[in-house]
Amino acid sequence: MADIARRGPRPQFVVPVTFALVVILAAACSTPVVVAPSPTPVPTAVPSVDPHLGDPASATAVFSGFGREGLKFVTNTAEAGAAGTAVITRINATYGGWPLQLVEYRTAADLKKAADWKAGQAPGKGEPPVALAGGNILIRWGPWDRDTKPPRPDEHQAAALDALVAAMDRLLSPLRTRSNVPVQTGSASLANEDGPTAAPEATPAP
After folding, report:
1. Percentage above 90 pLDDT, the chain
2. pLDDT band (50, 70, 90) for residue 117
3. Sign of the C-alpha dihedral, residues 58, 64, 65, 66?
């Protein structure tokens, strides 16, 4: 028994502890596993909506389009055209402090017959300061009196005219214009030597 005590306890736990240290060191020295990040989804392109209206366009579609373009109108009255005429609808409104009339014709050809404009002539007595034609839609803007020349837009109305022409150009281009001040449609200015736009002849209200 004394001999056993001198030798001390047997190292029965040495091997398991050594094996555990080897496993830990091997794990620490091994190459870490890199987790690839999930791919970032590519956003789907959203196609832009073409605001251009078909031909023929309805008066209500044009006014809705003007609203989407940010124009502010006060609608006063709307009436159907007389039976047997080329006019479908007339809408009377106020825009920029001036009266505005939108006339819907049955076809663009009907409008061209009613407003066969010639370039280079400003509006005269009995005509509005501004007239715009696109497709089958005619817009008259500003006061008109048969005994007076049409007034010229002031600074505020000139800005409103720019916005109106830009909106109508997007909705109903190509446009034909008539005004006693320069008007720009698309990329081309239609001003003549005296400043007014390319102008049609006087056209009485249908």
Report:
1. 50
2. confident
3. positive
Contact (Cβ atoms closer than 8 angstroms) between residue 115 and residue 133 = yes
Pick from 135, 204, 144: nearest CA to 179? 144
Q: List, for residues 15-34, the tens digit of each pLDDT value.
A: 444 444 344 444 444 555 55
Strands 188-189 and 184-185: antiparallel
Residue type, 156: H
In angstroms, the CA 164 to CA 96 distance is 10
- Report the predicted TM-score, pTM, of the whole model to 2 decimal places: 0.68
**144 φψ region: left (φ > 0), alpha (ψ -120 to 50), beta (else):** beta
d(CA 10, CA 12): 6
Contacts of 73 (CB under 8 A, 6+ apart): 63, 66, 67, 93, 94, 95, 100
